[in-house]
Amino acid sequence: MLMPKTRRIALLFNGNKIFDREVITGIADYLSSTRTHWDLFLEEDFRLRLSGIEKWQGDGIIADFDDPTVAATLAASRVPMVAVGGSYEDPADYPASVPYVATDNVKIIKLAYEHLIEAGLRNFALFSLPEARENRWAQEREKAFTALMRRDRMEPAIFRGQSTRAQTWDEAVREQIAWLHSLPKPVGIVAVTDARARQLLQACTLAGIAVPEQVALIGIDNDPLARILTRIPMSSVIQGAQEMGRTAAHLLDQVLHGVRLNDTRILVPPAGINVLASSKHEPARNPHVMRARHFIRQYACQGIKTDQVASYVGISRSSLESHFRQELGYSVHDEILRFRLNAAVDILKQGDCHLAEVALKCGFTSSQYMHSVFKRELGCSPRSYQERLLSTYGTACSAVD
After folding, report:
1. CB-based burial of residue 234 (10 Å sphere; 0-12 exposed, 13-18 middle, 19+ buried)?
2. Which of 102, 123, 187, 364 is surrounded by the fewest CB atoms within 10 Å?
3. How far, in whole angstroms, is CA 51 from its chain's centroid?
4. Phi and psi for 267 in degrees, rounded to 5?
5. Contact partners, residue 182, CB within 8 Å, separation at least 6
6. Phi, psi at residue 164, to the nearest 5°?
7. Is the pLDDT score of 401 beyond 70?
C-alpha cells in the first residue's frame, strides 16, 4: 500500500490561549481520524512568532487571523492557507481569497444572553475589552449584544475597562467596582472571555456584591485555568473551537489536493454552556439568606459550618436557620452539602481522580461521608455516578475508591 504524501504544515497559534489550544486539538483529531500525513511546524513553546515565517518553505498554513499582524504578514504569501478567527457583521471585514473558519460571535452572545433570561433576569450588561485592532472579535461581540438589546427594546450597558497591566491593576479594579455598583440589580453580565469574567468575579467579591443573587455572570471559552482561579465556580459558553480546527484541517487538505476554496466562509456555532454557580440566579427576597449563600458559595469546600455562616451574616444561628426554612424550605447545612455535592460532581466529570482526594477538595469529612451523601441525594455511589458519566459522555476517566 502506498503511503500518502507527507505535507509540511505550519500552525500559527498562541498555545497560551484556550481558544487556540482547542483549535489545535481539533486539527489533531482530524489527522488522527484520516490517512492525512502532516509534518507540523509549531514553536517549541507553542507561542506565535512571525519573524521569518514569510520565508518558510512549506506546503500549507493554518493561522489565527484574529491577530491582525498575522493577516498582514501572510498577505503576500503564496503558500496555501486556511484562516481561523471570529465572525464579522460586515462581510467586507473577512480576509479576501482565503478559506476562513469562524467562531459564530452572534450565536455565542445569543446563547449566553438567553441563558441569563432563563435564569429569570431582566437587566443585562456586557464586560468587554478596550477597542483595538487585536480586539476586533470583542467588538464584534459588542455589536451582537447591542443588536439583541435593541431588538428587545433595552439600552445596551457595555463596559470595556482597561487592559490587564500590573501598574494600573488597582485602578482597573476600582473602575470595575464602580461600574458594578452603577448597574440595576439583579443583573446578568456576559463577559467576552473567561479571563474577563474572572476579573469581574473578583471585583464582586471585593465589593461585597453577591454572586449570582445580585450579579449573575457568564464568560466565554470554558477555560479550566480561569475556573480554578475563582472561589465561585464560573459558568461559560463552550466555543466550537475543536470543530473549527477539524474543519480548517479538512479545508486545507482539500486545497492541497487541488480544490479551489477561495472566499469559502464557514461559521461554527458554540458547543453549549458549562452552567456552574456564577449564573445560577435564584432570586432571594431575604437579604440574610442572600448574604449567607454568597458566603457558602465561596467557602463550602473549605469545611465551613453553619455557625461560621451565621457569624458572617451577623445574626444568630437559630435566626439564620429560620430565615432559610422560610425562604428555601431547607437548612443552612443542606445548602452547604448541596454545594459540596455539586463541586464533587464537577470533579468527577473531569477525569481520573481518587475519591478520597475528591472528598478532601470538596469539604467532606471523609470519603465514606461523601459516599453516604451521594447515595442519599443521587441514589448511587460516587463510583457508580462516574460510571454513568462514562456511559453517557464516553469520557476516559475512572475513580479509585
Report:
1. buried
2. 123
3. 31
4. -100, 125
5. none
6. -75, 110
7. no
Is residue 375 helix, strand or coil?
Answer: helix
Q: Are strands 187-191 and 158-159 parallel, antiparallel or unpaired?
A: unpaired
pTM over 0.85: no
Q: Which three cell numbers stand for residue 308?
A: 461560621
Q: Crossing angle of helices 105-118/136-151, nearest 10°?
A: 50
- CB proximity list for 366: less than 8 A, separation 6 or greater: 359
**% of the chain at pLDDT higher than 70:** 94
- CA–CA separation, 308 and 314 (whole Å): 10
Containing 217, the helix (H) or strand (E) segment is: strand 215-220
H helices of 220-331, where? 224-228, 241-256, 287-299, 306-313, 317-327
Residue 125's pLDDT is 98
Quick count: other Cβ atoms within 10 Å of Cβ 245? 27
> Could you tell me the domains of the chain?
6-103+241-271 (3.40.50.2300), 105-238+275-279 (3.40.50.2300), 287-389 (1.10.10.60)
- Rounded to whole angstroms, the Cα distance separating 128 from 160 reads 5
From CA 243, how far away is CA 268, in angstroms rounded? 7
Residue 148 grid coordinates: 439583541
Amino acid at 224: P
For residue 136, the one-letter residue type is R
Calculate the alpha carbon distances from 206 to 202, 230, 320 in Å.
Answer: 6, 13, 24
Which residue has cell 475528591? 358
Work out the end-to-end distance of the chain between its first and last CA atoms, rounded to an integer number of angstroms.
48
C-alpha closest to that of 361 among 307, 275, 302: 302
d(CA 367, CA 355): 6
Q: Which of 245, 227, 335 is nearest to 290 (CA)?
A: 335
Residue 79 — φ and ψ, nearest 5°? -75, 135
Say if residues 266 and 243 touch (Cβ distance below 8 Å): no
Place of cell 472571555: 193
What tens digit of pLDDT does each residue of 94-133 get? 998 899 999 999 999 999 999 999 888 999 999 999 999 9
